[in-house]
Design brief:
This protein is an alpha/beta fold. About 40% of the residues lie in helices and about 20% in strands. The relative contact order is 0.07. It is an enzyme of class 2 (transferase).
Length: about 525
């Protein structure tokens, strides 16, 4: 799909990740220092060129996290973030002193509205501070990045004047941030071209773009910056950040990867680690990824339309411009819903070793449509149940018969679960404890189903409001290198989770053929 490009024409784009600094400034996204270190390790594995791990002067915990990341990640450039304030610079210098490669990133406002109402300083005062602080920082490190904050709302003449001043004092990277996500792509591209062409010494430094997403233009503006001469783009995983967030790492990288022919640019990102990185950040920061989020959203590579499904089953390139599996995203392109056609039903059944054709397929399809009309999406466990009812060829390997949970403020949660094995009809009851009711229930089910898959992910959604609200639980499990998803809806959300987990395990059992007795033989 991507046209071949002469390697000599390619421009290498540096990926500067600020998930742990700007991203963590998202309301409610604060994480523990230990979690920062785990995410930083994954960012290094992903292949980002530079990591801005925090704001060292802001707290002792923040300082310690930046310090440990600097010591541990010797193969990645570490960026010390600081206001144009001596104390900030000292903290950033000390926190990053053990890094194999480091730079300092200084910033000060440049727009009149910031100068008048935030800093309450004149342009001359701000220029003086910028010069003095860049000169002060230069004695500690060779690489100095400088950001005239809110540059897209400042006059171009003053931005050029500030850029000239800091270059003269030793700045090596000029970042022109669209702090409020205000710029249009053509304006942002022109800003880079003008500063590069008109600022004295502008041809001796590198240029960086830092875009916010208030108007949904962060990725578009970052690509425009590349066309304008920027060779570094500042991003966050999942596009998190203040207000509407920052330029999304995964969207920017895949835009460059997919359209190399148009952009004549490349990155050093290992795209196979994109999905793992997205999931890790989402979990640790407790920030869910929107279903329709490009690249990593649940619906990004899923198709419900019968026309689309038919085309995909014949040739993936008909309706996909990227390969999700290359990014580590589980292959689940077909979503069964009311718009799905017979080809999709037949294909999904075949994946479980069930051949449907002729009148049998028509009967299953008619029953499927009734369920799909009522609830929009039909999960695999529901489809298998429909097939069983229509063909008498299938019975759930395991059925949840009873569940009880005891909770309290001063005690561990205790659960008891009874499950019936299909075919034999034998029922087994087990009890278990957990830090929470869901953990206790899952621990029970794993005792009853020896082949139970690894509980990987849980999504909870409220489907209504009020005291009689129904909750939807979507459980994803991992078994034999494949992912299976079970869904259940109930007023009791714990029961819904249990039913969804059993449903996902049933899918794994049916696909692999492993039953209770076989699992016992393997372990015995």
């Amino acid at each position: 799909m991507t046209k071949s490009v002469n390697p000599s024409e390619m421009k290498r784009i540096t990926i500067f990740d600020t998930t742990l600094r700007d991203g963590e400034q998202s309301p409610g996204a604060a994480i523990e220092p230990e979690q920062k270190i785990i995410i930083a390790r994954q960012l290094a594995k992903l292949g980002v060129d530079a990591i801005e791990p925090g704001f060292p002067v802001s707290s002792p915990g923040e300082f310690a996290a930046v310090q440990q990341i600097s010591r541990e990640l010797q193969g990645t450039e570490i960026v010390g973030f600081a206001r144009a304030v001596r104390g900030d610079i000292d903290a950033a210098v000390k926190a990053t002193q053990d890094a194999a490669r480091r730079r300092l990133h200084l910033f000060i406002s440049s727009s009149d509205i910031h100068l008048d109402f935030q800093l309450r300083k004149t342009r001359e005062q701000v220029l003086s501070i910028a010069r003095e602080m860049v000169a002060y920082a230069k004695q500690f490190v060779d690489e100095i990045e400088f950001s005239p904050m809110d540059s897209t709302r400042a006059g171009i003449e003053f931005v050029i004047e500030m850029v000239e001043a800091v270059i003269a004092e030793g700045a090596t990277i000029i970042n022109l941030p669209d702090t409020m996500g205000y710029a249009m792509p053509d304006e942002y591209e022109a800003l880079f071209r003008t500063v590069r062409a008109q600022a004295r010494g502008g041809d001796r430094v590198r240029y960086s773009a830092h875009c916010h997403n208030d108007l949904g233009l962060a990725v578009a503006n970052s690509l425009a910056a590349i066309r304008g001469g920027a060779t570094q783009i500042e991003v966050t995983v999942n596009g998190i950040g203040e207000r509407a967030g920052n330029c999304s790492l995964e969207e920017l990288v895949m835009a460059i990867e997919t359209r190399k022919d148009a952009l004549k640019a490349e990155t050093g990102i290992d795209i196979a680690e994109i999905y793992n990185t997205s999931r890790l950040v989402s979990r640790m920061m407790h920030f869910p990824v929107a279903f329709n989020k490009p690249i990593v959203g649940r619906n990004a590579f899923q198709h419900e339309s019968g026309i689309h499904q038919d085309g995909l089953l014949k040739n993936r390139a008909t309706y996909e411009i990227m390969d999700p599996e290359a990014m580590g995203i589980p292959r689940s392109m077909i979503v069964l819903g009311k718009h799905s056609g017979r080809h999709a039903i037949k294909h999904r059944a075949a994946e479980y070793g069930i051949e449907l054709k002729g009148e049998q397929l028509d009967e299953v399809y008619a029953a499927f449509k009734k369920v799909a009309d009522a609830q929009k999406i039909v999960t695999d466990d529901q489809l298998l149940r429909i097939i069983g009812e229509s063909t008498d060829r299938h019975e759930d390997p395991y059925t949840l018969v009873d569940l009880q949970v005891l909770s309290g403020t001063q005690r561990a949660r205790i659960a008891s679960v009874t499950i019936r094995e299909g075919g034999t009809g034998k029922e087994r009851t087990c009890s278990a404890m957990g830090a929470g009711p869901i953990e206790a229930v899952i621990n029970c089910i794993k005792q009853v189903i020896p082949a139970a898959a690894e509980f990987e992910d849980l999504e909870l959604h409220s489907l209504s409001s009020g005291e009689d609200a129904h909750g939807e639980a979507v459980v994803t499990v991992l078994h034999g290198g494949r992912r299976y998803r079970g869904t259940a809806i109930h007023k009791d959300i714990i029961l819904a989770v249990a039913q969804a987990f059993v449903g996902a395990c049933n899918q794994a059992v049916i696909r692999t053929g492993i039953r209770d007795s076989e699992a016992e033989e393997q372990t015995g």
